[in-house]
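Much of the work behind modern protein science is quiet bookkeeping, done one molecule at a time. The protein below has been through that process, and both of its lines are reproduced in full.


***
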Amino acid sequence: KPSRPRPPSALAPRSGRPASRAQSWPLISATMLRVALRTRAADAYSGCRPSARQWMEQPKRRSCQVSRPARSSAEAKKGDGISVDVEYSGLWGAIVTFPKRQPFATNIVVATVKTSLADLIVQKGEGKKEIDWSRNGVFTLFGFAYLGVCQWFIYVSLFTRLCPNAIRFSNLSWAEKLKDRAGQVDLVKQTCYDNFIHYTFVYYPVFYTFKELIQASGPAEGEKKAESSLVERALGKYWKNCVTDNLYMWSLWVPGDLLVYACPIWMRLPLN
């Protein structure tokens, strides 16, 4: 059966599209090739990124994990920990291992109790019938605040930053210490920092200030008390005794620090 002739308008292209399949095939092929090339380039650039649905279904992982630096020797590299992760059982085991597990708290307790007891012994040695508890309270505060908290910051936080091999060296065996050149250099550096900077310019001024706070009498009659008078009197007394005090301190703690800073770091402040 002969087909009906189409009108001329039916043979014209509509909306800019080709009129026949033969005419549209080159355009479709070129479009498919262009899409394939773009997809391949995008995959090569992104490392074959999964689709949105695949990305939503796959298990998520953190790209960046931030955690506290390892403090325990069991978690860190050999000799890089301050506290020690030890196993214990019972109350006695908890007490015996407490200094290794909690060196900061141990230093606070030791410094506070030791300073308070030392003052009580001195007061008894002076022949006092009654304990001066206000004086003992000042010494106890000095032990807690300076010997406990501030010296932890100086001896552990600050010194281990100035001497990067300090923690590692202190936790080595004595045979390994003899072979560790970098650790030996940091050992000498810490001894110099402690004796020639810390004791001379920090410890003694603070000590004389607390001493003046305890022993100094009030201002003379008719004398106006200035706010900075106590600190000025304390520093003036230290200036008179600074040579003798530092020579005595260096004679004891230059060799003493060479031993203290070579011991495991959790023992550093109780020994000091």
Remarks:
- The chain is about 65% helix and 0% strand.
